[in-house]
Amino acid sequence: MTVLTYTGGCQCGAVRFRVRGELKDASICHCRMCQKAFGAYYAPLVSTRGAELVWTRGERKTFQSSSHVRRGFCGDCGTPLTYEAPDGVAVAAGAFDDPSQLPPVVQYGTEARIDFVDRLHLLPGRRTEDDAEQAPFVLELVSYQHPDHDTAAWPAETGK
Q1: In what helix (H) or strand (E) does residue 117 lie, and over which residues does it extend?
Q2: Which of 64, 104, 107, 140 is most exposed, with minimal Cβ within 10 Å?
Q3: DSSP 3-state assignment of 4?
Q4: How far does Cα 44 stand from its chain's mean position?
């Protein structure tokens, strides 16, 4: 039997993790605390209950966001990483190296869902390079973000 393994980390690469086991409880939370914690309209999270979560590089910082919940994040780049509650730890879906493997199966906190979120898929879409006329720098952009896979060391030389 093959054990599923997922990896991920923050934007700058200072904090990395590995999860071994089945991840089947991906969700979206619309509550106001999650909106603020992610700086977004909602928070995509993946429960690690029943799986093994190991921090493989660095340590996350935490913020006690309520009487029962701590939020983990990278202290260097600010990437949201965890929602830690008495019933387990959930990891930010976007922090996984391949978040497409973890589609949400339920939504929580829908009393705070912002109405237009249900219509986002109706907005016109543009590829990054399509914005080059208005913002020519996008054609020369070099990402300093950590790549979507484990590395022996980080950060890489950025030429700065």
Answers
A1: none
A2: 140
A3: coil
A4: 7
**Would the pLDDT of 42 be above 90?**
yes
Decide if 71 contacts 84 (C-beta within 8 A). yes
Q: Find the range with the poorest average confidence among 27-41, 88-102, 125-139.
A: 125-139
- Using one digit for the tens of pLDDT, what is the confidence trace for 138-160? 888 888 888 889 988 877 655 44
**Cβ neighbour number for residue 17 with a 10 Å cutoff:** 25
Residues 74-103: tens digit of each pLDDT: 999 999 999 999 999 999 999 999 999 999
**In terms of Cα–Cα distance, which of 134, 15, 159 is closest to 75?**
15
Burial (CB < 10 A; 0-12, 13-18, 19+), residue 21, is middle
| Residue that has been written with the tokens 């020369």 in this structure | 140
At a CB cut-off of 8 Å and minimum separation 6, what does 40 contact?
none
pLDDT above 60 for 66: yes
CA separation for the pair 71, 82 (Å, rounded): 5
Give the type of residue at 84. Answer: E
| Residues found in the chain | 160
Contacts (Cβ under 8 Å, ≥6 apart) of 124? none
Backbone φ, ψ for residue 137 (5° rounding) = -60, -20
